[in-house]
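Hey team,

Filing this mostly as a record. A colleague (T.K.) asked me to run one chain through the structure pipeline before their review meeting, and I want the input and output archived in the tracker in case anyone asks later how it was produced. No errors, nothing strange. Just documentation.

Input sequence:
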Amino acid sequence: MGFRWSIPARTVAVAWAAVVVTAVSNASVAVGDANARVAQRSQVSIEIANHITVVHQAAGQIAGGREEVQATVVGLSKLAGTLRETVLRFQV
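Output structure:
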């Protein structure tokens, strides 16, 4: 007959408890790391959203400026027509 180890059940239970505690501790650290990465990504998403808002506002201002320029061009075109008519009346 071969040699058999005789380890008390209590010793085996304590060893397995230590293994479980280590596994839970490692999992807790991994979850903490994952939470930190999620928080960083959330912050980046917020910054991107803020930049998009700024770009949107700038685009609105550019569009408003374009409309003002277009209105000025129309006004200047009308004024040029009026001046042309006035000059033609004074030509001899």
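Quick notes for T.K.: The mean pLDDT is 91. The first helix runs from residue 9 to 90.
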